[in-house]
Design a protein that fits this description.
The protein is of the alpha/beta class. The chain has a single domain, classed as 2-enoyl-CoA Hydratase, Chain A, domain 1 (Alpha-Beta Complex). The chain has helices at residues 38-52, 80-89, 93-109, 126-129, 160-163, 171-178, 184-189, 199-211, 217-225, 236-247, 252-262, 265-274, 279-292, 297-313, 321-331, 349-355, and strands at 14-19, 22-27, 59-64, 73-75, 115-119, 122-124, 136-139, 144-146, 195-196. A 6-stranded mixed beta sheet has the order 1-2-3-5-7-9, with helices on both faces. A 3-stranded parallel beta sheet has the order 4-6-8. Helix 1 (38-52) links the parallel strand 2 and strand 3. Helix 3 (93-109) packs antiparallel against helix 14 (297-313). The chain is globular, with a radius of gyration of 20 Å. The model has no long low-confidence stretch (mean pLDDT 96). This is Enoyl-CoA hydratase/carnithine racemase. It comes from Roseateles saccharophilus.
Length: 371
């Protein structure tokens, strides 16, 4: 066993290798679009803590295993079927998943060595959580970034309240509420990616990181940067102006009314998307992003840990919007969630406020020690 690679527990769902000064982590669950399991989160945490302490490891890169003959996926999020089963079973592993995932997100944002996220293909939910804290976020024309949690009656977690809030104007509210997927050019323009490497260069890049000499962190970064090109982009400035006009409204009802009044195709389609989402969890999401502009990452993750506890437990599993959303999307696959309430006008402000009351005292909070 290479002393630079500790023992792992995920039965091959995380692969670790060392090339010179570079530690490489491969998410190896391609049949599930490299979605994160609790064991994968534990292995990534073990590796990063170990490599942070070892002077011979000077940089870390993380990538998703390829799918033979199919479009790539970096990481499509967390294992939502597990969430559904665990919520119904009252399994404490559900809480452990989110506590440990958010700790991993925090560790990545504060990692003391260059951490490079190779965000080729699908990067959603939990995949954003393990990439947005990277020192270098590398995209291709195949990259598809989104925080689609409102589609399952959840909110953009894994630090989404923090990193979406950093987007210019009201782009964060738009991404959080709609779950809209963006490409490399917009992601870089809006601060959710750093550099673009064309897909034609991708295999060569990964090969170089794996097998070419990597004597220093500077050399690792240079291996990426020598393949960087200008990202193809539409007109993100024009898109941002349109987003700001509607998503700067102070309330959820105001956003919907503004979209209805605009009458153009984009506004109509955006409004139709919002009308398929959980009204309650959209209200929670809007409040999270707006609070997130004033929060540190640690405070945001503590708040998200409160919110995700309530998402599953405030009403119990039988009436949880999140359990119902996962049922409709991934379990029964009828794509017909029965939201309660069904209309934005019927959302109870007191119930939204209850989400933001921590179930723990500060001394007992599972993420109390994050700073």
């Amino acid at each position: 066993m290479n002393a630079a690679v500790p023992n792992l527990v995920s039965d091959g769902q995380i692969l670790a290798e060392v090339n010179g000064c570079l530690g490489l982590i491969t998410l190896n669950r391609p049949q599930a679009l490299n979605a994160l399991s609790l064991a994968m989160i534990r292995d990534m945490t073990t590796l990063l803590r170990h490599w942070a302490s070892r002077p011979e490891i000077q940089a870390v890169a993380v990538l998703g295993a390829a799918r033979e003959g199919k479009a790539p996926a970096f990481c499509a999020g967390g294992d939502i079927r597990f969430f559904h089963q665990a919520a119904h079973a009252g399994d404490p592993a559900l809480g452990e998943f989110f506590t440990e995932e958010y700790r991993l997100n925090h560790l990545i944002h504060h990692f003391p060595k260059p951490y490079i996220a190779l965000m080729d293909g699908i990067v959603m939910g939990g995949g954003m959580g393990i990439s947005q804290g990277a020192k270098l976020r590398v995209l291709s024309e195949r990259s598809k970034l989104a925080m689609p949690e409102t589609a399952i009656g959840l909110f953009p977690d894994v630090g989404g309240g923090y990193f979406l809030a950093q987007c210019p104007g009201h782009v964060g509210e738009w991404l959080a509420l709609t779950g809209h997927t963006i490409a490399a050019g917009d992601a870089i323009e809006w601060g959710l990616g750093d550099v673009y490497v064309p897909a034609a260069q991708w295999a060569d890049l990964v090969e170089a990181l794996r097998f070419s000499p990597q004597p220093s962190a500077e050399h690792v970064v240079a291996t990426v940067m020598e393949r960087v090109d200008l990202a193809p982009t539409a007109d993100p400035k024009a898109a941002a102006e349109r987003i700001d006009r509607h998503f700067g409204e102070p309330t959820l009802a105001g956003i919907l009314d503004s979209l209805a009044a605009a009458g153009d195709d984009w506004a109509r389609q955006t409004r139709e998307t919002l009308l398929t989402r959980s009204p309650l969890m959209m209200a929670v999401t809007l409040e999270l992003v707006r609070r997130g502009r004033k929060l540190s990452l640690a405070d945001d993750l503590r708040l998200e840990r409160d919110l995700v506890h309530h998402a599953f437990h405030l009403r119990g599993a039988a009436r949880s919007e999140t359990v119902e959303g996962i049922r409709a999307l991934a379990v029964d696959k009828d794509h017909a969630p029965r939201w309660s309430p069904a209309a934005v006008a019927d959302v109870d402000a007191a119930e939204v406020a209850a989400f933001f009351v921590s179930p723990w005292s500060p001394a007992e909070h599972p993420l109390r020690d994050l700073s």
